[in-house]
Each structure stands twice: as structure tokens, then as C-alpha cells.
């Protein structure tokens, strides 16, 4: 039986939702879990002004928090549906900017999609009953279940979402290195040697620094990058800046933040920022000061982060959306889809 939750109830039960995400086969777990989607709902709102007055902090349940939100669970199957209303009136994931997030969670994709279909047909009696499901792994069990439901839907459309590049760490960094080319391994060794010769040290974020302190350090590095100088840095966008600040704070609070700084002479020159969830590390941002590009500090940071991730038991290292440099690091490109279903 469906139980619809108020937004405040969802916040109180986000741990249960995260447990369901961890049991959902094949999805991008970190980006489907509560830290990512709540930061996205708080900060990545379409149509908001570019100038930031600070993130609206919708992780806190204010008087309008239930407006435009549909969260429901089916205890019998352990299924969850987590959507917000789009400007066009259909239901979409909390994170609709890249569609990494899958708004369906539960151990049995067929049962979860059946729950979505039942819910859609019930909603069609009184209002919008169209859903955009993002983060669907192409060819997986969830994709098959949605395709089957699509044959009974009033409308069914599939389209590419944002893929991600992943590294398999199930056999450790040694196993990953063995799958890389000799040229790439030599390049990594050279970067390590140049870093050591330059006196660059890599250290995690200290536990006594606040999220504001850490984000200020991160932004200080961003301001010295080639992307920042060219005006192409994602942090030029106020909503994205707020999103990453909100996410950093949430990850810090839960103990899931993974943030390393490369330093020389007491000065930050690079950072690698990510988080962990259910055996997955998800990279969020990595940047270095332009004047240090020839040292290979980015490669040295990524390799050190891989080692630390493997040591703590991470088996899947998600590099995020595709780019040329990630092709050399990744074992696999995970294809994700968006699926639109309208019932009634």
C-alpha cells in the first residue's frame, strides 16, 4: 500500500531511503542518494537568478517545503518514489540538471516500476501523471521494467541522459594499474616523481575546519585555474557554486566527505573533492593552479585518491561525466538514460 510522505517526513527518514538506494541494482548510487538529490533540490532550481544570495537550504522543511514534491514509499516491496514537479507540470527527479539521479529506489526494479505505474494511474484521476525517470542504466533490469511499463503507458519516450566514467577497484589499485597501458603507467610514475621533487605534499582536509573554511580553500584554488581564467569554470555559475557548497556541508556532517589538498610551502595549489556512499567513491571536482600544470599534480592527486579509496574498501570509483582525460583512467563508460512515462 502506498504511503505518501510530507517533505519533513522524508528528511526524517532519509536514512531509510538511502538504504533502499544502496539495494537498488546498477544505478549511480551516490547521485541517487539523499545528499546529492537534496543539495540539487535546494540549489539547482530552473529559472532562478544567477546571482547568489546563498543557497535556499531546502533541506530544512519550511512552510512551503511540500509544494511541488511527490515522495511515496511502498513498505511491502521496499520501494521509494522521489520526485518534484517540473515547470512544465510533469514529475521529475530532484536532480534534473544532469539526470544522474534515479528517483526510483528499491531492491526489485520490477516491483518498484509496478509501484510507479499504480501510482501514476491513481494520480491520473485527479492531476499530472507523467514522470521523468533519470539515471536509468541502459540494458539493465530497471530499464527492462520501464520499457515493459511503457507498452501500457499513454506515452513512452527514452533519450540519452549523462553517462559517467568508472574505475573498477574490486581488485585494488594494482589490478587497475595492470589494465592500463605501459605509457600511462610511466606517465603516472613521472608525475609522482615530479611532485616529490617539487616538495608538494598531499593531505586530507583537517577535521577541525568548518565546511565554510574548506569551501573557501577550494574556491581559492579554483580562482587560479585555467578554466576560471577562461570563464568556463562550473563555479562561475551561482547555482552550481551553491550546490557544491551545500553538498560539501552535508557530506562533512555525515562523514562521507573525501577532500584532499596538494600543498607546497603551506599554500594550497590543488584539490580533489568527492564523497563516498555504499562502496562507491564519486568524484565531484578536481582542480589545480595553472602555474603548476607542468608538474602533473592532477595525476598525482587522482592516484593518491585512488589508493586511499581502495584502502577504505571502495570497489567502484566514479569519475563523473565523460571527458578526454578520463578515458585513460576509466575501465568503463556507464550509459544512463532518461525515460518519460505518461499514464492515464
Q: Report the portion of residues in β strands.
A: 25-35%
Q: Please list the strands of the largest sheet in the order they lie side by side.
A: 9-10-11-12-13-8-14
SSE pattern, N- to C-terminal: EHHHHEEEEHEHEEHHEHHHEEEHEHEE
Q: Supply Rg.
A: 21 Å
Largest sheet: 7 strands, mixed
The overall average pLDDT, rounded, is: 93
Overview of this protein structure:
The chain is α+β, with helices and mostly antiparallel strands and 344 residues long. The protein has 2 domains: 3-163 and 335-342; 165-320, Gcn5-related N-acetyltransferase (GNAT) (Aminopeptidase, 3-Layer(aba) Sandwich), CATH 3.40.630. The chain is 38% helix and 25% strand. The protein has helices at 7-12, 14-22, 29-32, 34-43, 109-123, 141-150, 172-178, 182-197, 211-222, 226-230, 238-254, 297-311, 324-329, and strands spanning 3-5, 69-74, 79-85, 91-92, 104-105, 130-137, 155-160, 164-168, 201-204, 257-264, 267-277, 280-288, 316-320, 332-334, 336-342. A 7-stranded mixed sheet has the order 9-10-11-12-13-8-14, sandwiched between helices. Strands 1, 2, 3, 4 and 5 form a 5-stranded antiparallel sheet that branches. Strand 10 (257-264) and strand 11 (267-277) form a beta hairpin. Helix 4 packs antiparallel against helix 11 (238-254) and helix 8 (182-197) crosses helix 12 (297-311). The longest helix has 17 residues, at 238-254. The model is unreliable at 47-64 (pLDDT under 50).
Amino acid at each position: 500500500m502506498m504511503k505518501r510522505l510530507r517533505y519533513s517526513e522524508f528528511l526524517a527518514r532519509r536514512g531509510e531511503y538511502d538504504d533502499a538506494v544502496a539495494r537498488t541494482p546498477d544505478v549511480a548510487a551516490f547521485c541517487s542518494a539523499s545528499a546529492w538529490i537534496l543539495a540539487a533540490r535546494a540549489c539547482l532550481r530552473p529559472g532562478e537568478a544567477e546571482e547568489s544570495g546563498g543557497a535556499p537550504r531546502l533541506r530544512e522543511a519550511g512552510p512551503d517545503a511540500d509544494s511541488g514534491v511527490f515522495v511515496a514509499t511502498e513498505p511491502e516491496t521496499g520501494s521509494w518514489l522521489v520526485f518534484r514537479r517540473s515547470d512544465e507540470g510533469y514529475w521529475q527527479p530532484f536532480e534534473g540538471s544532469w539526470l544522474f539521479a534515479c528517483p526510483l529506489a528499491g531492491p526489485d526494479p520490477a516491483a518498484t516500476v509496478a509501484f510507479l505505474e499504480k501510482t501514476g494511474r491513481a494520480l491520473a484521476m485527479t492531476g499530472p501523471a507523467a514522470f521523468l525517470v533519470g539515471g536509468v542504466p541502459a540494458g539493465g533490469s530497471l530499464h527492462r521494467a520501464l520499457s515493459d511499463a511503457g507498452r501500457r503507458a499513454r506515452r513512452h519516450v527514452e533519450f540519452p541522459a549523462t553517462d559517467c566514467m568508472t574505475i573498477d577497484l574490486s581488485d585494488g589499485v594494482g589490478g587497475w594499474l595492470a589494465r592500463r597501458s605501459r605509457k600511462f603507467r610511466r606517465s603516472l610514475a613521472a608525475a609522482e616523481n615530479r611532485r616529490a621533487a617539487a616538495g608538494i605534499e598531499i593531505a586530507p582536509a583537517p577535521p577541525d575546519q568548518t565546511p565554510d573554511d574548506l569551501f573557501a580553500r577550494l574556491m581559492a584554488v579554483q580562482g587560479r585555474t585555467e578554466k576560471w581564467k577562461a570563464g568556463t569554470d562550473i563555479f562561475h555559475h551561482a547555482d552550481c557554486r551553491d550546490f557544491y557548497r551545500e553538498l560539501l556541508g552535508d557530506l562533512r556532517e555525515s562523514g562521507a566527505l573525501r577532500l584532499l589538498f596538494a600543498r607546497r610551502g603551506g599554500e594550497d595549489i590543488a584539490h580533489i573533492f568527492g564523497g563516498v556512499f555504499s562502496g562507491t567513491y564519486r568524484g565531484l571536482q578536481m582542480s589545480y593552479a595553472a602555474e603548476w600544470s607542468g608538474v602533473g599534480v592532477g595525476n598525482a592527486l587522482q592516484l593518491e585518491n585512488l589508493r586511499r579509496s581502495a584502502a577504505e574498501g571502495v570497489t567502484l570509483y566514479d569519475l563523473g561525466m565523460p571527458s578526454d582525460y578520463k578515458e585513460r583512467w576509466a575501465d568503463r563508460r556507464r550509459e544512463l538514460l532518461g525515460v518519460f512515462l505518461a499514464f492515464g
